[in-house]
Specification:
The protein has 72 residues and is mostly helical. The protein has helices at 10-14, 31-48, 53-70. Helices cover 57% and strands 0% of the residues. It starts with 9 loop residues before the first helix and ends with a helix.
Length: 72
């Protein structure tokens, strides 16, 4: 996730052409599971309390959108 969030792109460099989201395809991610994962990510962000707070909110929203996009 670090590379996805703008940090070091080690995973992408080691896996050229692979889509991180597609790695989740074998798993059933329904809307309830997506919501649980999004909530867990938002709690983890809150625990770290990155500054500025608006960035923390934006990160949580982006991850929630990503989770909803993987649900089926």
């Amino acid at each position: 996730m670090a590379g996805w969030a703008g940090g070091p792109r080690d995973w992408f460099d080691s896996n050229p052409g692979r889509c991180m989201v597609s790695l989740h395809k074998p798993f059933v991610i329904n809307p309830a599971v997506a919501a649980q994962w999004a909530e867990a990510m938002q709690r983890a962000i809150a625990d770290v309390a990155p500054q500025p707070a608006a960035m923390a909110t934006a990160m949580g929203e982006a991850l929630a959108t990503l989770a909803r996009g993987m649900s089926r």
